[in-house]
Amino acid sequence: MTASRRSGSTGELGEPGRGTGQDGGTGDGRGGGPGSGEPNGPGEETGRPGSDLLAALLDGMDAALCALDAEGTVTHWNREAERILGWSAEEAVGRRGFSGWAVREADAAQVADRLLAAMDAPGRQVHEFALLTKDGGRVLVRTQSAAVRGADGSPAGVYCAFSEVHAQIDLERSLALSEALFEDASWGVVLVDADLRPAVVNTHAARAFGSGRSALLGRPLGELLAQGAEELESALTHVLAAGAPPAPAEMWLTLRTAEGERRRCWRNGFLRLSSPLAEEPVPLGVGWLFQDVTESRRTEQESARLRFRGRQLHRAALAAAECEDPGEAAVTQLDFALAGFADHALLDAAFDGEPARLVRFASAPAGGHVPGALSGQARIPVGYEEDHPALLCVQRAGSVRADAGGSGLGSGSGSGENGEAAGPVDPEAARRWAARRQWPEDAVHALCVVLRSRARTLGAVTFLRGGHRPAFTREDAQYAESVAARLAAALDLAGVGGAD
User: Fold this and answer.
1) In terms of CB atoms within 10 Å, which end of the chain has fewer, N or C?
2) How many CA atoms within 13 Å lie on the side-chain side of 245?
3) Is 467 helix (H, G, I), strand (E, B) or coil?
4) DSSP states of 86-151
5) Are 190 and 202 spatial neighbours (Cβ–Cβ below 8 Å)?
6) How do strand 400-403 and strand 410-411 relate by DSSP bridges?
7) Is the pTM higher than 0.85?
């Protein structure tokens, strides 16, 4: 409830006036202004709509508010002030100052002087006071006071808005945290609205997206991400509906930037944002925090890959050692090398000292249909064309990588065609590309490695991957060359192939 006092009346907001003594004070010792207890002036009626509106506005404020006239008498007191101090509007309005009830006697004069001084000062004045609660406790409050001017511009009083210091400090901390997150945070912070579009982006997030902060606002995530937008939008929708997940989530996303597409791994945290002003939680959007962990994840993946390949080589060596026939040992090692590395492997040997005459010796997986597969015992050459990658790798005595989307061939460990990664390939074009080279029709990426032993070329091994796998890299070529060295030793021991 809010009460007010104007022109000596406590009924400005519709409250009945209080009885006064001969000295103009109330019967309970409260001071009254000049003409206290008199009715409002002509034309001023209590309970009018404007007064009701003012009372509703004051009672609905989140901050406690009181007002004093020029003589220091309390004229307004809202519900938040009652909540903080315990004094109701009936008990507060009409009192002269705060002495003896809301402030200790020793502090009363200083508090009154500092509050009323706002009438002669420009703008707002900020102070901190220790006020008394109705039950005798003390509350440290921070006040903002400013002058109230009359119709002629002269000071008519002062209003004072106050709140508990700890609440104010909490608010300031929240604001400071928000400012720090959006300016100095070392991780990305994005506020996503209920339509799943960025509403606020901090500096770190803008750098991660390779764009300016304002350029990202309001754009659909599908315009910012080439891959991973559906997964991210699904996570944001879940947070809006069910709240924050219990742990961070890692996602691989492909960003669209001015320099091209970049694939990154982000560790993401999500928070549902709800309005503190609504009676029921109303989702305002999602707070999305992310940190780039691409390098650490790639390092972990590479370490795991190296450990797996090292174990495969070790297991292949042990299995080959138990083979009485060196040719069987070569096939065994080829099977071990295929696991987790490629979809198909072709082992071609060079017979009769002619590198251009490659004969199919083995293929993996065993029993797989390979176009043009012939028996090595018949020594009938595979019908490769002159520019076939397997023949080129034998002629160059090095590794050659080929991709269905490329236009040339690259030699050397892990080098690509024209030094560029293969782009998206039409499935029909990829099938024609594989058929022309006598490879399985699902082959999209190829790596041909020469077999060398005792300074002689014994043939070539070809590893093939389908479109669901990435193209071969330099690290893949190094592993393939380690496998080829073991295969060449086994073939040499078996007396298969041989060309200077």
Assistant:
1) C
2) 15
3) coil
4) ---HHHHTT-BSSBTTTB-HHHHHHHHHHHHGGGGSSS-EEEEEEEEPTTS-EEEEEEEEEEEE-T
5) yes
6) antiparallel
7) no
